[in-house]
Design brief:
The chain contains 7 helices and 8 strands; from the N terminus they run βαβααββββαβαβαα. By secondary structure, the protein is an alpha/beta fold. β4 and β5 form a beta hairpin.
Length: 145
């Protein structure tokens, strides 16, 4: 789960390649944005991810600001967004959990969040030409956002 899915090419490729080789990759983003341009940039990543088989959910009840990753019996929870600034520039804090009862609690939270979210299909995502143009521009300036 991440409020800001502002991927660089390396992370986008890693997620796509994982999904294409059969890994169950699911991402939950907010359905209601707190920052409209970042929301547009988040959605600019959907095209490549959906084509690769990544399942994307948008949390519908409100703003989702959780930052957590669940993978193979481990979890990471902290302040790190999936954006360039968080991953490369900021000094973010996070905790990796392995072999802990808390991993099950994180998993339960993710499953409950998915139940309250809308699974995005490729038909749901279709963006108009002006929106695709805006998204292309946003991807170029993504490291600054």
């Amino acid at each position: 789960t991440t409020p800001y899915l502002v991927l660089d090419e390396t992370l986008r490729a890693a997620l796509c390649l994982a999904a294409m080789r059969g890994v169950d990759v699911r991402i939950i983003t907010p359905g209601i944005p707190d920052k409209k341009l970042v929301y547009r940039l988040t959605r600019a990543n959907y095209d490549a991810l959906l084509k690769a088989g990544v399942r994307i959910y948008e949390y519908t009840p409100g703003i989702l600001h959780a930052k957590q990753t669940l993978s193979d019996g481990s979890a990471a929870v902290g302040t790190t967004n999936y954006d360039y600034r968080s991953l490369y520039l900021h000094f973010e804090c996070g905790t990796v959990l392995y072999g802990s009862k808390a991993v099950g609690e994180v998993k339960q939270d993710v499953l409950e969040t998915m139940e309250q979210s809308h699974l995005i299909g490729y038909a749901d995502y279709h963006a108009s030409f002006p929106m695709r143009l805006l998204q292309s521009i946003l991807r170029v300036i993504a490291p600054l956002m």
